[in-house]
Amino acid sequence: MTHPVDGLSVTRAGPLALLQDAGRFGVRRLGVTQGGPADLHGWAWANHLVGNAWGTPVLEVTLGGLELVAERDLVVAVAGADLSATLDGEALAVWRSFSMKAGQRLAFATPVNGLRAYLAVAGGFVARPVLGSVACVVREGLGGHDGQGHRLAEGDCLKVTPRRASSGSEAPREERYDYGGAAELALLPGAQVGEFSGDSLFQAFNAPWQVDDRADRMGVRLTGPRLQCRMPSMISEGIGLGAVQVPPDGQPIALLNDRQTIGGYPRLGALTPLACSRLAQCLPGQAVRLRAVSAEQALAAYRHLRTAFA
Known about the structure:
- The protein is α+β, with helices and mostly antiparallel strands.
- The chain folds into two domains: about 5-175, no CATH class; about 185-310, Cyclophilin (Beta Barrel).
- Helix content is about 15%, strand content about 30%.
- It has four helices and 21 strands.
- It has a seven-stranded antiparallel β-sheet with strand order 7-6-9-4-1-12-11, with no helix packed on it. It has a seven-stranded mixed barrel with strand order 13-20-17-18-15-14-21.
- A hairpin with a 7-residue loop joins β17 (about 245) and β18.
- The longest helix has 14 residues, at about 295-310.
């Protein structure tokens, strides 16, 4: 059995770097949310490029500003956003795996394309599971590298399970998303969609929306036409990933991985997991559109993703 060893030391922490596995499930009855990668697609590719199994913990780096030093020779991969990554000062391509020698310095600067990058290590990062997962949820103080929901700080050291792996693997070109353009977000209508006025439903799926600066791992507010709902009030009910709530101001809020477990605003429906991933890479001010899909279409897209990494 291989024991965890020191892998990467933090010399500059940046605004938000969190350890994320696939998420924490089966505990929402306790009021505990799922956590996990905001961009499932980028997270899955980072793991795949170093030969890790689905669910292996990966470091989610938001906005950059992170600097790490290798404590030993490692094979790592970066997928998702381009955060101006460099290795010992040399520019580093995203969506590929590469070798890090002991003492080398990996740095993420500022966003060029997208918001969140994913750093995987061959063999995986190691941390103590809390309620069955190492997914870091800062608000709940659960998971992460220390088990207490803390973001990475200067001086922290990430443990790894070392494993031999080859470097140089690259994701296919069609999987390397350009996050800068307008995003089309697949939404599964449901819940209270029939309570919205006809004009509101037309606007919801035909007008452009903009990502507001009020956006984090809990949810993303969209600004655009005001949506009108005929429901005066409702009893709070369970909230799933991607639920699109519409509060009284008529501006939708798409709820993501660190959302609350119940909510009392009417919902248009829910974004698909891949639509949540795309939205999580959008910067404030970016344009998005909603596209209604069927349950069969949503399930087929998710199965395609999972089959690719089976």
